[in-house]
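Narrative of activities, Objective 1.

The group set out to show that a structural description can be obtained from nothing but a protein's sequence at a throughput compatible with the screening campaign. Below is one input-output pair from the validation batch, recorded exactly as produced.
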Amino acid sequence: MKQFKTLLFAAILFVGATSFTMAQSKIAHINTNELIEAMPQMKTAKTELEKLSKTYEAEIQKMATEYQNKIKQYQREVDTKTEEENAKRAEEVQTIEQSIRQYQANAQEDIQKKQEELMKPIFEKAKAAIQKVAKAQGFQYVLDSTQGSGVLLADGKDLMADVKKELGF
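Output recorded for this entry:
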């Protein structure tokens, strides 16, 4: 019984100390999506990704046009060719179709890799600026107030203006 009282007393002290410590924490918030979208490097990255995407789209469109022309040609000549030649042509058309699909998959993978390569330094720069500003202003926690991130009420200090100033825009 005495041990139980001691344990209960220790638990109450722990909860009280934790609550007191939490009350002393300084909390701020920032919408990281808005910050990243406003960064000049993001505009450059988007332009580069769009250019790469259009290059792949043009190549895929060219391949698709060649594919359609070959199908039309083979359909026109189907009656003049032997069964064996038509079978070879059908196989050739399937091979072309597979190569187009493979090229599309590779293009999408390349675009995704390029996006990750371009976005990583932007995210890191934003994170470093947020940490620097938060530390300079004495905040222990910075919550992401981006819609859907779990922050329902953001009454604390918004660091957006200070972080933009830190980043130079």
